[in-house]
Amino acid sequence: MLDQKFYKLSWVKLERDCLELYSQVKDKNIDLIVSISRGGIVVARIFSDLLDNLHISQITITGYEDLKKQKKTVITEEPPTDFKNKTLLIVDEVSDTGAALDVAKKYFQKKSPKKIYTLTPYIKPHTKTIPDFWKQNIDAWIIFPYELRETARAFIKMFGGRKHAKKKLIEVGLERFEIDAII
């Protein structure tokens, strides 16, 4: 992991990419957004706003811990909503391996929806699942603007302490004010 590449995503870039994706989604007659929690929550909220405050349901799927891929991607929380005959937009922040999208799509196909679309603003070159809507292929670990403390803790573990973690966080693009707030 020490030779891992990182890409720090800004709030402005995330917003811009979601707005560009919205132009592809807006005429799809979506009835409900399903957020894959935790990563998809922010993106789902953006699309809820853009799609006239469309309701968001949530499914929690776990596949990573401390920036490391777990052996199995599993559902840990299921939504209580009825999905029959509804057009769904399943949203996550990134399709890394594609496992979370696959698990979610298989789960919802059993709920008799009218149509299922998938969306992640970002994909990885090695993903096995390409969402219906995506903006950019990024060959690096993406540091999202809403996971700075999580990233800092992982860096402290990976790089052997706060001093080395701070140095590496600066190298990957975090600002000093961000680092001072989280470490």
TrEMBL record:
Transmembrane regions: none
Matching entries from Gene3D superfamilies are given as:
3.40.50.2020
Q: Which Pfam families match?
A: Pribosyltran
> Its Gene Ontology molecular function terms?
glycosyltransferase activity
Please state every residue range assigned to the domain named Phosphoribosyltransferase: 16-145
Q: Which UniProt keywords apply?
A: Glycosyltransferase, Transferase
* Superkingdom: Bacteria
UniProt name for this protein: Phosphoribosyltransferase domain-containing protein
